[in-house]
């Protein structure tokens, strides 16, 4: 049995120090890759990673990191992705960066008040340092807090994500592998049931047995939070299936279980053709790649809570909708010339 206690505690301390004033070189390899949400996207090396942290610290100078889930495991095999991704030691966290929003971030206007920037992260650890990070900040939710919402109203409920109901999501000690394996197998069985959809009847997806009766599904800003199977279907599943009827999984870069917690995700995790209205966007016919993570909390062998960060802004950009351009317009800085390439 592999004891991840030292890795958990060391990485936890490194990440918390980094959010304050830590040097990137203390926790990242010199050639580390950092893949994040749009507009940060994919960067590499200390200089570029440091620049991202500098933007965050400038915007929230009193920023503190608050973890709701912090788990570790060896990534399990997925035959849809490279074998090199199997067996990596992965640290996964869900939480937020909280602080006073003093300076604009990515064009989002500073409120001068307290905000919470939701963040879900997965870090690959090699020889005690991070070799690869995947980070999804919910910048749309920050726009909501700054009162510059650029989209149609969400169908689900918007607001701060809750901590796990059992308050045991930050797991800094060793876990019994069998418990994590059991939880992981339940989640994968649920995934497989989702894939049994016959394209016509939601009941053909035999996945309800894997969820508690009143499970909570915490979606990203733009979709919102839902409760129970009826809420999940109404506010997320049906709109998503209408928007992307041919959606399919693209493979997971992370597949870990730690106690009653499971984390999966891909880069991209899902692909689909935008064939129907979604989030108010009419069908574009474009194939969309989706950066998605899933954080699951099981209670008595069933999924009770599911936090689902999705890079919505990146999806919309692929559809031809530039959220940041619209944000500039809303702030009194509209484009005064046609976009480059117009009419070609």
Largest sheet: 7 strands, mixed
Quote the distance from N terminus to C terminus. 60 Å
Shape: globular
Radius of gyration: 20 Å
How would you summarize this macromolecular structure in one to three sentences?
By secondary structure, the protein is α+β, with helices and mostly antiparallel strands. 25% of the residues lie in helices and 31% in strands.
Topology:
Layout: H1 5-20, E1 28-36, E2 42-44, H2 46-59, E3 64-74, E4 89-100, E5 114-126, E6 129-137, H3 139-145, H4 177-194, E7 211-218, E8 225-227, H5 228-243, E9 248-249, E10 254-258, E11 261-273, E12 287-299, E13 302-307, H6 312-318, H7 323-330
Parallel strand pairs: 1-6, 7-13
Antiparallel strand pairs: 1-2, 3-4, 4-5, 5-6, 7-8, 9-11, 10-11, 11-12, 12-13
Features:
about 350 residues, Nuclear Transport Factor 2, Chain: A, globular, single chain, 7-stranded mixed sheet, alpha+beta
């Amino acid at each position: 049995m592999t004891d991840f206690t030292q890795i958990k505690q060391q990485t936890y301390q490194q990440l918390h120090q980094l959010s304050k004033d830590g040097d990137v070189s203390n926790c990242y390899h010199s050639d580390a890759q950092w893949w994040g949400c749009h507009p940060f996207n994919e960067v590499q090396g200390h200089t570029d990673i440091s620049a991202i942290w500098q933007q965050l610290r400038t915007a929230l100078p009193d920023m503190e990191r608050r973890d709701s889930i912090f788990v570790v495991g060896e990534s399990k095999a997925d035959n849809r992705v490279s074998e090199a991704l199997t067996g990596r030691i992965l640290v996964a966290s869900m939480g937020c960066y909280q602080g006073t929003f003093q300076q604009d971030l990515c064009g989002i206007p500073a409120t001068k008040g307290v905000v919470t920037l939701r963040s879900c992260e997965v870090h690959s650890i090699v020889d005690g340092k991070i070799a690869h990070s995947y980070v999804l900040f919910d910048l749309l939710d920050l726009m909501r807090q700054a009162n510059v919402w650029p989209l149609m109203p969400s169908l689900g409920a918007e607001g701060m994500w809750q901590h796990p109901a059992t308050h045991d999501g930050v797991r800094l000690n060793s876990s019994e592998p069998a418990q994590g394996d059991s939880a992981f197998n339940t989640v994968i069985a649920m995934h497989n049931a989702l894939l049994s959809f016959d394209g016509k009847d939601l009941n053909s997806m035999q996945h309800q047995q894997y969820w508690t009766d009143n499970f909570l599904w915490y979606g990203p800003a733009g979709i919102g939070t839902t409760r129970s199977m009826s809420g999940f279907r109404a506010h997320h599943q049906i709109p998503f299936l209408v928007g992307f009827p041919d959606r399919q999984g693209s493979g997971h870069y992370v597949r870990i279980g730690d106690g009653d917690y499971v984390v999966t995700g891909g880069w991209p995790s899902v692909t689909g053709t935008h064939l129907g209205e979604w989030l108010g966007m009419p069908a574009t016919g474009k194939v969309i790649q989706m950066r998605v993570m899933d954080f699951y909390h099981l209670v008595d062998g069933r999924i009770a809570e599911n936090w689902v960060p999705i890079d919505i802004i990146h999806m919309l950009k692929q559809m031809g909708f530039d959220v940041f351009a619209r944000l500039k317009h809303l702030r009194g800085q509209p484009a005064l010339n046609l976009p480059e390439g117009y009419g070609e």
